[in-house]
Write a structure and sequence with these properties.
Catalytic activity: a (3S)-3-hydroxyacyl-CoA + NAD(+) = a 3-oxoacyl-CoA + NADH + H(+)
Number of strands: 19
Number of domains: 3
Strand content: 5-15%
Largest sheet: 8 strands, mixed
Bound molecules: (S)-3-Hydroxyhexanoyl-CoA
Protein name: 3-hydroxyacyl-CoA dehydrogenase NAD-binding domain-containing protein
Strand order of the largest sheet: 12-11-10-13-14-15-16-17
Keywords: Fatty acid metabolism, Isomerase, Lipid degradation, Lipid metabolism, Lyase, Multifunctional enzyme, NAD, Oxidoreductase, Peroxisome
Pfam families: 3HCDH, 3HCDH_N, ECH_1
Organism: Actimicrobium antarcticum
CATH superfamily of the largest domain: 2-enoyl-CoA Hydratase, Chain A, domain 1
Shape: globular
Length: 692
């Protein structure tokens, strides 16, 4: 049963029991309706308490159900709420830990609500590209007021129950045992009549038109490509402008409209994708993990410093190791400065600042880091350098320590072979700035022990990253794909586009940054260094030479004050460069390419489908375990627009046969060999299937 029924004296207790978060799927809704009917039929029962088992009152409607007919099957959430609200005996919601979405809507249908301290109260539907569709937009303003309800619904942000104690949302905040308090409350109101219903409350807000218009303007300006936030405002507006039942119908129509949008489907995909990524089929959830109480980072540069901050933010003391005192001092000073800036913005107290800075130490001596539970190497991306470091780590680190490499492209198995304990070696590829970016690509070597993988995944959660596991290959998931994207970007400028056209098209598509602005930010010399290695290792792969010519001019990007674009001192704005554009045009002439007008559509197709095709290889080879893992890498590490769900999800929405057709057309053009479709893509398209 997904809800339990028991009678305690004169009170029936209905307990939602649908782990993990008591989602209100069809079977739970059915069980609660049955429970209420049973209680109403029992003359000995005077009141009903509704609560949730385990770690939630309820996390809301079962999101997994949204793509299936059972989402709307009877009893629907509306029907359930109507049964509760229309009950002839008082129904009291006893709320704890998590009360969100449909869970809060159900509670709002109850006659009374009592809550434990610290319960997280939210209508977070907007984060899934929808709005509360079971009366939340109509009932919440009636108990907490128009303004607070609008804020909660448009932001989706949870509010602690005690902060809402003064509103009509709760009849009582219970400090001790929740059930004991709820039963005492039930006894105190068992005979009270008439039963209060939230629907009967009038939303009172003088001059609401002005407030609503202000809200529309503000929300419209902030919601970007997402339709849901503005629809939230419209639905909340209906709580003042329409009769209750009309408001409910209006809300329901908007909900049905939103749930079918690609934006909402993409956000739901990302929600489940993030959770799926931490599940490794041959590493069960109960795999024992190693204790991580201290960390060391080799290299105090930008990357090493950012990595260290992650540990410190999570309460794990870290020791930085450098080869020269000056570099060490500079690295630690930069971290300190970063925390000072956060403190100046009011996001860190002096006490927390002192704590964090106090957790960082430095050394020039390998012997000092030997007792750390994990060491992350963030040194120069060169196999020779990695060899020296890992041999040293093998000598000094205690047994059982995890030896992690922040390599972004190199062979983790080879790195592991430099040690006598390859089972303890793993790749942890952070993205710059490492203290900000959500992605952590976790590279599982062929010898990596299961508990090392499980520990690293758990650690990624602790440091608030989205950990995605990749197998070993050149560039892993993310950089192996971006290589194809960068190649296409290079060909596009050789054939007729200029950097600003490419960047604008990509940014209009929704990427945070186009490839050329991104190159200038990350440093064009990094790609140059990698290409030089590839020219030797894989001479069969063709690249545009424009990026090499740029680097030969010393234009490495923002750090040298010039890259694909010009920069002014103290200003990160990219100004198109006449010099670079002339260089590109001359290069086309030098290699005998007649430049042509390239459409924005072609730019997007070539850049995005190059990612998709490489990803299909990666999936087929088992480097990525699932298509959604690839999407998570791109959503959290490469600025792929979230409302498009990631490259694989996007290809699914375009339709794989359509993607394939465009690739076949591109294969007839210049560098057509790049468009040989991955067998998996061909197979899925032929079978009418999708990646996800
Ligand atoms: C809604 O209510 C619509 C209505 O207005 C109208 C309907 C007509 N459904 O995050 P965690 C799973 S829309 C199904 O790791 P935490 C999740 O997939 C809903 N499953 O834990 C994961 O499964 P697994 C509005 C759900 O403790 C497991 O629970 N509600 C749901 O860090 C643990 O999740 C929301 O948007 C769900 N509703 O955080 C709430 N929620 O273990 C979304 C979670 O198999 N959920 N799961 O991977 C959350 O914000 C967090 O999950 C929560 C727990 C705070 C609840």
């Amino acid at each position: 049963m997904t809800a339990e029924y028991q009678v305690n004296g004169a009170v029936a207790i209905i307990t939602l029991n649908n782990p993990p978060v008591n989602g209100l799927g069809l079977s739970t809704r059915t069980a609660v309706v049955e429970g209420v009917r049973k209680a109403l039929a029992d003359d000995a029962v005077k009141a009903i308490v509704l609560t949730g088992a385990g770690k939630a009152f309820s996390g809301g409607a079962d999101i997994k159900e949204f793509n299936s007919p059972s989402a709307f099957a009877e009893p629907s959430l509306h029907t359930l709420i109507n049964v509760v609200e229309g009950a002839s005996k008082p129904v009291i919601a006893a709320i704890h830990t998590v009360c969100m979405g449909g869970g809060l809507e159900l509670a709002l249908g109850c006659h009374y609500r009592v809550a434990a301290i610290g319960a997280q109260i939210a209508l977070p539907e907007v984060k899934l590209g929808i709005l509360p569709g079971a009366g939340g937009t109509q009932r919440l303003p009636r108990v907490v007021g128009l303004e607070l309800a609008l804020n909660m619904i448009v932001s989706g942000t949870p509010v602690a129950s005690e902060k809402l104690a003064k509103t009509a949302l709760f009849n009582k905040i219970i400090e001790g045992d929740l059930m004991e308090g709820a039963l005492a409350f039930a006894a105190s109101i068992a005979d009270a009549r008439p039963l209060p219903k939230v629907r009967d409350i009038k939303v009172d807000y003088p001059n609401y038109e002005a407030f609503l218009q202000f809200s529309r303007n503000t929300v419209k300006a902030m919601s970007g490509p997402y339709p849901a936030p503005l629809k939230c405002v419209e639905a909340v507006a209906a709580s003042v402008t329409k009769k209750f039942d009309d408001g409910i119908k209006f809300e329901r129509d908007l909900f049905i409209e939103l749930v079918q949008t690609t934006e909402s489907k993409a956000l739901r995909h990302a929600f489940f994708g993030e959770r799926a990524a931490s599940k490794i089929p041959d590493v069960p959830a109960d795999t024992p993990v190693r204790s991580i109480k201290s960390a060391a980072v080799i290299g105090a540069g930008t990357m090493g410093g950012g990595i260290a901050m992650n540990f410190v933010n999570a309460g794990i003391p870290v020791m930085l190791l450098e080869t020269k005192q000056e570099a060490l001092d500079k690295g630690i000073a930069t971290i300190r400065k970063n925390y000072e800036n956060t403190m100046k913005k009011g996001k860190l107290t002096q006490e927390k600042f002192d704590q964090r800075v106090g957790m960082i130490s430095g050394t020039l001596n390998y012997a000092d880091i030997g007792q750390a539970d994990i060491v992350v190497e963030a040194v120069f991306e060169d196999m020779g350098v990695k060899e020296t470091v890992f041999k040293k780590l093998d000598e000094v680190m205690k047994q059982g320590a995890i030896l992690a490499s922040n390599t972004s492209t190199l062979d983790v198995d080879q790195i592991a072979s430099f040690t006598k304990r390859p089972q303890d070696v793993i790749g942890t590829h952070f993205f710059s700035p490492a203290n900000v970016m959500k992605l952590l690509e976790i590279v599982r070597g062929k010898a990596t022990a299961k508990d090392v993988l499980a520990t690293t995944l758990a650690l990624s959660k602790k440091i608030k990253k989205t950990g995605v596991v990749s197998g070993v290959c050149d560039g892993f998931i993310g950089n192996r794909m971006i290589e194809q994207y960068s190649r296409q970007a290079g060909f596009l400028i050789e054939e007729g586009a200029l950097p600003e056209q490419v960047d604008k098209a990509v940014e209009k598509f929704g990427f945070a940054m186009g490839p050329f602005r991104m190159g200038d930010l990350a440093g064009n010399d990094i790609g140059w260094y990698i290409r030089k290695r590839r020219y030797l290792e894989k001479p069969e792969i063709t690249y545009s030479k424009t990026a090499d010519l740029l680097c030969e001019l010393g234009r490495y990007g923002q750090k040298t004050g010039a890259g694909w674009y010009d920069y002014k001192a103290g200003d990160r704005k990219a100004y198109p460069s006449a010099l670079v554009n002339d260089m590109i045009i001359k290069h086309s002439a030098d290699i005998g390419v007649e430049r042509r007008k390239i459409s924005d559509q072609e730019i997007i197709e070539r850049l995005v489908y190059s990612l998709v095709n490489e990803a299909a290889h990666i999936l087929e080879e088992g480097i990525a375990m699932r298509a959604s893992d690839i999407d998570m890498v791109y959503l959290t590490g490469y600025g792929f627009p979230v409302f498009r769900g990631g490259p694989m999800f996007y290809a699914d929405t375009v339709g794989l046969p359509n993607v394939l057709m465009t690739m076949e057309k591109l294969a007839k053009g210049r560098h057509g060999d790049a468009w040989k479709p991955a067998p998996l893509l061909v197979k899925l398209a032929a079978e009418g299937k999708t990646f996800n």
